[in-house]
Design a protein that fits this description.
The protein is an alpha+beta fold. A six-stranded antiparallel β-sheet has the order 1-2-6-3-4-5, with helices on one face. The protein is rod-shaped and about 185 Å long.
């Protein structure tokens, strides 16, 4: 009986130990599972952190790349703008040089026309002088002596006639030719016109300056607002106004007020045009090797007379309107 109880006690102890071992194993398994879960969570957290860091690195790299691209694009646009500005300045310089060349050609043509007109006037004056001299010589030829008359009255009559024949004629050779002030003549093949005209285009057609009355622009190549100023200033100062094909920026938008060697008159015309630049709609003025514009130019600010250095525009005031 004691052996049976001991056997029972041993079995109970063994069962308790087995149960305790099972509990310990279960606890160990739970602890291991918890450790595994913790390690997995740590690994996931580390993976998430690394992924976040990688994403941030990539975002930073992308931002840096975009910044570089933006900087490159800005540099490219700046280069394009510089090229366009250089091209614009080159184009303006070429246009200015072309205008200067055209002005010089016009001045040379005008000088040729004036020289030809002076030569023609000299020839006409010489011919008139020669004709007058011939007339005087013919009138002073001694008359044929009449036969003696028998009566005193007849002799006195003959003497009276002889005295009348010897009266010197009026001196017509010294009278200068009348100046043409009508403002127009028929142009010759080179396009020259008479005194007081506005100049001309090829073939002698008038250029439409120094015109008379409103609406006269229809007779010339100028646009109406240009013709109005050309007419008004021409009449105001008594100076011819002219234009020609190739006049910058266009023959319909440019006027030369011809003053010749009268610098004081040219200065008055230039000052008047500068003072009324905006109301006249003028773009720029060139006079006496100076330049005046309503825009900033290479040599100075707007609305200021600045030296131009082309050595031209002494005999005329050049005015241009915007196209």
């Amino acid at each position: 009986r004691e052996a049976a109880e001991e056997q029972i006690q041993a079995e109970l102890a063994s069962a308790a130990e087995a149960e305790r071992q099972a509990e310990l194993a279960e606890e160990e398994a739970a602890r291991q599972a918890e450790l595994a879960a913790q390690e997995e969570a740590v690994e996931e957290e580390e993976a998430a952190r690394q992924a976040e860091e990688e994403a941030a690195r990539q975002a930073a790299a992308e931002a840096e790349r975009q910044a570089e691209l933006a900087e490159e694009e800005a540099a490219r646009q700046a280069q394009i703008a510089d090229n366009e500005e250089a091209a614009r300045q080159a184009e303006e310089e070429a246009a200015l040089q072309a205008e200067i060349a055209a002005q010089e050609r016009a001045a040379a043509e005008l000088a040729d026309q004036q020289a030809a007109a002076e030569e023609q006037a000299a020839l006409q004056a010489a011919a008139a002088e020669e004709q007058s001299q011939q007339t005087i010589e013919e009138q002073f030829q001694p008359p044929v002596e009449p036969a003696p008359t028998e009566t005193v009255n007849q002799t006195e009559t003959v003497e009276t006639i002889d005295e009348q024949q010897y009266q010197p004629p009026a001196d017509t050779a010294a009278a200068p030719p009348a100046e043409n002030t009508s403002g127009s003549t028929t142009g010759d093949a080179s396009g020259s016109t008479g005194g007081g005209t506005t100049g001309s285009t090829t073939g002698g057609s008038t250029g439409g300056g120094n015109l008379q009355g409103p609406g006269a622009s229809a007779n010339g190549p100028w646009q109406p607002h240009v013709a109005q100023v050309a007419n008004s200033v021409s009449q105001m100062f008594g100076v011819p106004a002219t234009t020609y094909p190739g006049h910058s920026p266009h023959e319909s938008l440019a006027v030369d007020f011809m003053v010749g060697s009268n610098t004081a008159l040219g200065q008055q015309v230039a000052d008047h045009l500068a003072a009324n630049m905006d109301s006249y709609g003028i773009d720029y003025i060139m006079w006496n090797d100076d330049f005046y514009s309503r825009f900033t130019n290479y040599n100075g600010p707007a609305y200021t007379w600045v030296p131009w250095g082309d050595g031209a525009h002494y005999g005329h005031v050049h005015v241009s309107w915007p196209g």
